[in-house]
Amino acid sequence: MHLLDRIEKYGHTAPDRLAHVSGERRMTHGELLAKSNALAAWLDAQLGDKRTPIAVHGHKEPEMLVSFLAAVKSGRPYVPIDYMTPQQRMERVVEIAGAEVVLTPAKVAEIVAAAGAVDYKRKPLETSDPFYILFTSGSTGEPKGVVITLGNLNHYLAWMHGDGGFRECGEIFLNHAPFTFDLSVHDIYLALSSGNTIFSLTKDHISNLRALFIALRESGATLWMTTPSFAQMCMIEKSFNSMMMPHVRAFYFCGETLAPETASQLLERFPNVPVWNTYGPTEATVAMTKIGITREIIAQCNPLPIGYVMPGTRVIIRGEDGKAVPGGERGEIVIAGPNVSPGYLKRDDLTAKAFYPLDGTRAYRTGDWGRDRHGMLFCEGRMDSQIKLHGYRIELGDLEANLRALPEITDAVVLPVRKGEVIDSLAAFVVLSGPKQGTDFEQSAKLKTQLGVRLPAYMVPRKFHFLDSFPMNNNGKADRKKLAEML
What we know:
Elements lengths: L2 H11 L4 E5 L2 E4 H19 L6 E5 L3 H12 L4 E5 L4 H11 L3 E3 L1 H11 L14 E7 L7 E6 H15 L7 E4 L7 H10 L4 E4 L2 H4 L2 H11 L3 E4 L1 H7 L15 E4 L6 H10 L5 E5 L9 E4 L2 H6 L7 E2 L4 E5 L12 E6 L6 E2 L3 H7 E4 L2 E13 L2 E7 L3 E4 L2 E4 H9 L4 E11 L2 E11 L7 H15 L8 E4 L13 H5 L3
Parallel strand pairs: 1-9, 3-4, 3-5, 8-9, 8-10, 10-11, 11-12, 24-25
Antiparallel strand pairs: 1-2, 6-7, 7-17, 12-13, 13-14, 15-16, 16-19, 18-19, 19-20, 21-22, 23-24
């Protein structure tokens, strides 16, 4: 069944079932069907035969979902833009996308209220057609749009529906990621295509811990995909456990490295809930590997594995010569399969650097270091996170992993300290697993001693900064830019 047919089915068969909860706002599957049909008809009236992308500017309002579905029903991809996006960047995204319509929640509410009931005939949407475009940061500061087709999305959803054990009309997907971050795609389309409910955590929840924990208690959430940083922040609250969220059936992690300590704490707080580690860049549609993290795996592996590859997709660990390296050796993770994006919007130059044909399918160079150990994949950080300090090459991800392995440390981020254009030293930002032992100087000295047992002296950070939690960016990852401002 076509994805949109599956979503629309519940608007007819379970119209009163909640589709979306966002703050005090509620929207049923029946309302989602009616409103998206009305908005799709309006888009056709405005744009005629043009199939230009539709920009959608807002946050977690129900009208955002109405807009996404209306766009694709009318044969047009959508481009989500969060309201926290600076005006200049928003305008640049709209310009690059070529969007002639920018929808806001207020505008959508006005349109559907005026339209009333509309009997809309959906436009044909083929598997090769763009479904959504997510803009990410480019290395030059220019945003780049990752195009994801219906076929890409179908491949991911088929894997998760077949392997995830999701119930029909019986799940509540806790949505932490903003709609500009592809973790939210997991929540939106797995929920809507199975008649389930999306419970969104808004900016108001995330900026107010009291409001956040009230929302978690009231959510009734059964499934949660989030980032390790966000989970670690939640665990600052001692009551964040199975008593607070008694219905949760699984945690999924993506977007960052899942530290063994984070997984271990979560298994202690939620002893009967499986913890899944997943991996996948935006260009490969949310995620394409997963593995259940057990206490046995935590005891044996650091870093933790990212798991086994989804059916129908291949991973090659590629050396500098472009050829696959022998099993167990390190190289670049390359993903090939129907989940791989066709490329970057209007950027043939960037597309040619990152994507290429491989044995009749499309392949993407991730820029991540990885290893394949008997079919089990490990990710060892970004290839571009390598720095040079006093002539020594250092992988910041390697250093961070060794810091997290120390019993006193729950999480760590390492940044270079520059003097002009030269890297002078390293600074570590750490979240301790317990109270600080002595002064900052005394605690730092102890950590340096412990780290010196594991690493050469030139890799040991000169300065340690102790934080209760890391600041997070809009995607729920540790905000390295804000940390750099503390240097």
